[in-house]
Amino acid sequence: MHGRTIGEKEDVYALLERIKNDDREAFRELVSLYQKRIFLLAFSFFHNREDAMDIVQETFMRLHQKIHTFREGENFKSWIFRVAKNLCIDHYRKNHSKGKEWGSEQSLEEMNLPCKNGDNSHQALDLKMIFSRCLEKLAERQRMVFVLKHYNQLKYREIAQVLNISPGTVKSLHFKAVQNLRGLVSPYLGRVQ
Amino acid sequence: MKECKKINKDLVAFLYGELPDERQQFISSHLEECSSCQREREKLKEVHERADSLNEDIKAVMASVNWETLPDQITDTVFGKEVQEPKESWVLGISRVLFQPKLRPVYAALLVGVFLGALFTFILFRSPLQRVAREDLISYPPGFIEKVELEMARRETLDYLKKSQYLILDFVQTSAETAPSTWQRDFASQKVKDLLSKKKYINQQLDKFKMAKAKETCNQIEFLIYELVQISDEIPAWRLQEIHDFIEEKQLLLKIKLLEKELKQSEKSEV
Q1: Domain span at residue B221?
Q2: pTM of the entire predicted model
């Protein structure tokens, strides 16, 4: 979705050098470049606009504070995603872990199930909600890998850098995430056994 | 079957195009022939489609964010507002110095001091003793103070007249028989000095209560006393005669008596 070009990479490193010298305009440009990607990651993780906006703001504030710890030669995209990922997990643990769920308080069982004969908008809406809830039920690392892969379209190699794990582990976590989602969603899908 | 198990483990990565080209090709060929692996792929595709259903929501939410202004908002939050502050006026400068945080304890102490001072003052003036004293002052009938002052002025004047009368009589009776040095001693005494200072006091009282006649007599007495005070051994006989003549001419002794009588009568009539 957001392939990185060599030109962009060079630009980003030039911007980072300027930001280290407290260049306000360079910081603004960097925010313009990465704001959507960070938002996408956070929104896919929380499925909540306000939480996602908080994460975007906090990520760039943290970036400004920690810019001097960014080492030359490091992959900036992975670095900033790692910052955002950590903030997402902290935010989730702080605000959502104590029995809170995204969206309504309605349980999966209380939602309308799709009928085999046809679909309507209400049922489609519920299916989206069901999938959101199923995604939430995944273990933290599986969910993060699935979100980064499916919605942010990062390569396994990049996800590995973000999560500071090996690409093999990423592949394994992705497989488990999809299998678990299949198991969680299947009771609500007519076609899936 | 063993091959299918290995392929199933790679199917998720295959669907997301994460396998090396060779492996991708191999699985693709296998799927064309293996119906079991095809079913597994369909099940996984179902999950993939469900996950894609959230894309609509994501697009809608992303469209609701103002990406043009967000970088400015975040930059302002991180760097602070980049607004040219107007040059600080001298009033602001003084107020900044006066209201600096380190002076807060001083202001707090001052406030406490003012408050305690006001409280003690209030308590002091509200004490029963003070209230009684004030109430007493207030309860005097109107004109009482003036009456008291008039009475005191009258008595002071009477006292002055009486003492002056004795002094003049003394002078008249003894001036022919004794030496001037005797009078000089008498008139230089503390008694005469007191009499002169008393005159200064009763002057104000006589003016205040419009006692013009009494004041005239008192002035003549005062003049006489000043003359007597200056008497010395070398005083010529004609000067002594002049003083005697002055007493007689002004009928001082008679005036004193009349004035005394008048003052006493006015006192009785007022009572």
Answers
A1: 144-270
A2: 0.51
Shortest distance between the Cα of A93 and any Cα of chain B, in A, equals: 23
Residue B74 in domain:
no
Residues of A numbered 39-58 whose beta carbons fall under 8 angstroms of chain B's beta carbons: which are they?
A: 39-40, 43-44, 47, 49, 52-53, 56-57
Instruction: Report how far residue B244's alpha carbon sits from residue B207's, in angstroms, rounded to the nearest whole number.
Output: 29
Residue type, B155: R
**What is the tally of structural domains in chain A?**
2
Distance CA A123, CA A112 (A): 6
A185 assigned to some structural domain? yes
- Which residues of chain B approach chain A closer than 8 Å at the C-beta? 9, 12-13, 16, 18, 43-44, 46-48, 50-51, 53-58, 61-62, 64-65, 67, 70-75, 77-79, 82
CA Rg value for chain A: 19
B79 domain residue, yes or no: no
Q: CATH code at A177?
A: 1.10.10.10
**Residues ≥6 apart with Cβ < 8 Å to B8:** B37, B40
User: Is residue A43 pLDDT above 60, yes or no?
Assistant: yes
Q: Are residues A78 and A143 in the same domain?
A: no
Residues B263 and B152 in one domain: yes
The answer for residues whose C-beta is within 8 angstroms of residue A48's C-beta and 6 or more apart is A102
A111: exposed, middle or buried (C-beta count within 10 Å: 0-12, 13-18, 19+)? middle
Regarding whether A78 and A26 lie in a shared domain, the answer is: yes
B125-177 pLDDT, tens digit each? 776 655 555 555 566 677 777 788 888 888 888 888 888 888 888 777 776 66
